Amino acid sequence: MVSPGSALADKPWKQILTHGQWPLTGGEQVENFLAAGCSELVKQSPNDEFTIVSLSRSDPKFQAICRDLGEAVTAFHSFQAEGENGRARAAEYNQICEDLRLELMEYVNSAKVKPKAHGHH
What we know:
Layout: H1 13-18, H2 27-44, H3 49-58, H4 60-81, H5 87-113
Helix pairs in contact: 2-3, 2-4, 3-4, 4-5
């Protein structure tokens, strides 16, 4: 089984995100990115909303990737709003968003298939 994160190991998305115009500073901004990332995932996969919200509250690695997705989506929209000037960067961020969505959905799908613990036999 492929571990979450390995699909992006060779991609420079972390550097692109952290060296862009949106450095992660302040708890409020970080939480906004987390909310934006979760919201983006729920839009794409509404049936998984419960699992997405649950993971976003309990799994630090999922939270970190979700924040990255929120940051990438914010950057994508910002570059998209620049029109022709931002087209190349928007395309770059769109690809980053897709990669992060795929990685997060691997998390969601593996969380859904875990057997539920039962209190009695």
